[in-house]
Amino acid sequence: MKISVDQRKCMTAGVCVMEAPAIFRFQEGSKKATVAPEEIPPALWPLCRKIAQKCPTGAIAILEDAPA
User: Which domain range does residue 7 map to?
Assistant: First the structure.
């Protein structure tokens, strides 16, 4: 699974960073979220889907989905 954060949509709410710090980080300077690992470990796929749904601006996109 690969995911991305649309920097134009990210409003720094921080839901992703607070709930999944192993996946998301704040960028230096802008405080917008970014994805830390390039490839997400299978154990974290359900969490990624949950966080993408919770993003208040829909900034998190699943680029390559994997089976649930």
Answer: 2-64
For the chain, how are helix, strand and coil distributed in percent, rounded to 5?
25, 20, 50
Residues in Cβ contact with 4 at an 8 Å cutoff, skipping those fewer than 6 apart: 35, 60, 61, 63
Residue 67: the pLDDT is 63
Place of tokens 């829909």: 58
Q: What is the CATH number of the domain that holds 7?
A: 3.30.70.20
DSSP state of 8: T
Look up the pTM and report it: 0.85
Q: In total, how many domains does the chain have?
A: 1
Using CA atoms, how far apart are residues 52 and 60, in angstroms rounded to an integer?
Answer: 5
What pLDDT digit, counting tens, does each position of 15-41 carry? 999 999 999 999 988 889 999 988 899
